[in-house]
Amino acid sequence: MAHQALSQRALRLRDSGHKLTHARLTVLDVIERSGGHLTSTELLEKVNAVDSTIGRASVFRSLDLFTRLSIVRPTYIDSSVTPTYVLLPDGHHHHVICTSCSRVIEFDECGLQALEHELEQRLNVRLTGHLLEFYGLCADCQNNTQRDNDED
Amino acid sequence: MAHQALSQRALRLRDSGHKLTHARLTVLDVIERSGGHLTSTELLEKVNAVDSTIGRASVFRSLDLFTRLSIVRPTYIDSSVTPTYVLLPDGHHHHVICTSCSRVIEFDECGLQALEHELEQRLNVRLTGHLLEFYGLCADCQNNTQRDNDED
DNA sequence: TTAGATGCAAATAGTTTGCATTTGT
DNA sequence: ACAAATGCAAACTATTTGCATCTAA
Predict the structure, then answer these.
(1) Best-predicted range by mean pLDDT among A88-92, A133-137, B75-79?
(2) From A15, B52, B57, B100, which residue has the greatest number of CB atoms within 10 Å?
(3) What does A16-64 look like in DSSP terms, one character per residue?
(4) Under an 8 A CB cutoff, do A130 and B133 touch?
(5) Strand D interface, protein residues by Cβ within 7 Å
């Protein structure tokens, strides 16, 4: 029952001694295709759209496992209710998220090496990675905002 | 029915045109005393211990208000279920999270203004905030790691 | 073959809402 | 005095659990 080619992360999953089940591979695939920014609710919907026989519990269990394996990480940034899961690529991770349309814009440079270094010295920690997210409005949503008004 | 001296943040609350109610002042006080790292559930308990007549709804409403006023911010700690609220000292938010013991170490400087500015120009976006998390081992956990091995 | 994973449905957390009442200014 | 905020309890949403069944290795 071969899925398609296994992603890097799927291999990590297997190497850590867990079974490569249909449910897990599907959940992982959905996360990867999504660009790596999903709430659990969005994930549930998308997984369900792909294969409606996969149960909610398995999605949550996968999310939990992936978190423990550092494949994914929950962040709370603008929904105060549902955590957003972000894919953790290898070294660092940074992008801009449009708070209006949720579009994700990647960028390469983050220039944090210097800061990382300084923090290691000053705080006496050993750092292995980081997550940097900027929040704001993308070009399109800035234009649409001229129509104004959706304050609370 | 004067509470004790008003904190800096309580003043901000008032200045923003909201009433200084008993419930709000109590919630704020509990957060400030706690060192500024609480889940909503912990907050509910502590508020209840101080004054059991304050209802859950008011606690959540305060949390919501404080978040909108940037007095507090929901963030990831290690429960994947309940957001943790941290006090926001100034404008932005950044910290180091120990991947072993989940300890959170705050730091002030992030030097991202320059980058933020550059991205706004280059990507044609309008940025309003950011989250910066470093992951690594705190001093204690580096030492304990000599004893190695506590995989799952 | 068999331990580990699953799907289901019911149980549990966590959060929000409507509304009559109270309170800060 | 009166708009804003509250407390309550019920509604809702999100997540977890127990267990019989299934499946990857």
Answers:
(1) A133-137
(2) B100
(3) TT----HHHHHHHHHHHHTTSEEEHHHHHHHHHHH-TTS-HHHHHHHHH
(4) yes
(5) A 1, 14, 19-22, 40-41, 56-57, 60-61, 64, 81-83; B 18-19, 21-24, 53-58, 61-62, 80-81
**Which residues pair with residue B137 across a beta bridge?**
A126
- According to the model, what pLDDT value does residue B8 have? 87
Mind listing the pLDDT tens digit for each residue in B22-76? Answer: 999 999 999 999 876 788 999 999 999 999 999 999 999 999 999 888 788 776 5
CB A67 within 8 A of CB A73: yes
Our CA-based measurement puts residue A115 at a distance from the nearest CA of chain B, in whole angstroms, of 7
Residue B148 pLDDT grade (very low, low, confident, very high; cuts 50, 70, 90): very low
pTM attached to this predicted model: 0.71
Nearest CB neighbour to B76, from listed A63, A75, A111: A75
Q: CA of B81 vs C1' of C9, distance in Å?
A: 21
Decide if pLDDT at B126 tops 90. no
Provide the sign of the torsion angle of the four alpha carbons A86, B129, B41, B96, taken in this order. Answer: positive
Nearest to B96 among A112, A123, A142 (CB): A123
Distance CA A76, CA A60 (A): 17
Whole-number pLDDT of residue B69: 87
Separation of alpha carbons B146 and B95, rounded Å: 25
Give the position of tokens 């706690």.
B34
A105 near A95, Cβ under 8 Å?
A: yes
In the DSSP assignment, the letter for residue B121 is: H
- Interchain proximity B139–A119, CB inside 8 Å: no
Among candidates B83, B107, B112 on the partner chain, residue whose Cβ is nearest the Cβ of A119: B107
Q: Which nucleotide is nearest to B83 (CA to C1')?
A: C14
